[in-house]
Specification:
single chain; mainly alpha; 7 helices; elongated
């Protein structure tokens, strides 16, 4: 047959003209299921049994050191943090001699009213406490509870319907 070359298979892996045609056609991609909403981190147990769930209106990802002090006081008063944790949660920028001591060493002035991400700042303090541990790691444990509460409060809030 003179036109035998037209019917010869060029690719041995393909079974027929339909597969060749389908491979050239663009495939429709089905939308992938969206990732589930990030779950809220678990709430650590309160320092005082029976303490109500904290409901602070302060945005912890955009909070000033003064607001952090108010937040810590509120958490202490409702029983979520102990006295030692409350003392550890007070920002050092509120100390009156900050500019003359720490500020002089770091070259930064105290800005107690400038909002910042307190979750990130306290995570950095916790990482520092882990890098340079003391004889008893009580400071790291206190900071861990503060960070856990801040993360819980910064997590996605459930919608009221």
């Amino acid at each position: 047959m003179a036109f035998e070359f037209l019917f010869r298979r060029l690719d041995a892996r393909r079974n027929g003209w339909r597969e060749i045609r389908q491979s050239r056609e663009p495939r429709l991609e089905l939308p992938r299921p969206s990732a589930p909403a990030p779950a809220r981190p678990p709430l650590p147990p309160p320092a005082v049994a029976g303490a109500p769930v904290p409901e602070s209106e302060i945005e912890v990802r955009h909070m000033s050191p003064r607001q952090m002090a108010d937040w810590a006081h509120e958490m202490y008063m409702i029983g979520w943090i102990s006295w030692d944790e409350y003392r550890a949660a007070l920002p050092v920028e509120l100390h009156p001699a900050y500019d003359a001591t720490i500020g002089a060493l770091t070259g930064e002035r105290a800005e107690p009213d400038r909002p910042r991400d307190m979750v990130r700042e306290w995570e950095e303090r916790l990482a520092f406490a882990h890098r340079y541990p003391t004889m008893d790691d009580s400071e790291a444990r206190r900071l861990y509870r503060i960070v856990a509460l801040l993360r819980w409060q910064a997590g996605p809030q459930p919608y009221d319907s």
